[in-house]
Amino acid sequence: MARQSNIKLVQTVDNLIFYQRYSGFYIRTKPEQVNQTTATKTAGHNFGQANRLEKCMRNMLCPIIPNIKDRNMMRRFANAIYQWLNTNPLQTTIPVNQLPFITGYQYNLQSSFAERWRVPVTVSLTEEKMLQINIPAFKPKEAITTPAGTTQVTCTFIAAACNVNTATATGNCSTPIIIPYSNEIIADQNIPLNLFAAAGCLTVVAAALQYQTNNGNTVTNLCWMPAGIIDAMYN
Prior knowledge:
By secondary structure, this protein is α+β, with helices and mostly antiparallel strands. The chain has helices at about 40-60, 70-85, 115, 140-145, and strands spanning about 1-5, 10-15, 15-20, 25-30, 120-125, 130-135, 150-165, 170-180, 190-195, 200-215, 225-235.
């Protein structure tokens, strides 16, 4: 690194870089070649792919995302996908569910779906590799946390699949269930989703709650708009 004396340039000329650092002006030469390690190249690829997959998923899951323009939400989900990609998951030859980092992701940090909905939902694959949601019997007033005056809860399940290599959508579907908010037992349910778990795809099942109050209004306070991913799988 050489200091500029009688000139104060901030520009590039041929292979020389003139720049300012704090109160001084300096000159350095461009490196002839930047060598990246295999790990660095892989990390860079995974970072770019994670952002593309996040956008693909967000476009399909947008009906349940409380604030679709929340950039912090986007960065957090892209980071979750990035961390999953760094586990080298594409080498697997069998379907894997409950993917780390992605399963349990919360779209709204002000209201966790896992805390508001305390029913142990599971996701399974039929013999035809179609998705199915399995909900055990429960009492709404014991299993769902609600704001005051709630008379009805709508739980919307939405599934989306995206090809990991191309970051293109392969399908999505949703189904709502309407739950009267009472102490009456809701019978166990097995809900089929019209989505095929195709090979090479990241498939997620997300859910969100909407509360209807005794005056007929839907609650729009972000503190009561939970949404999260209940399962993520790779086939």
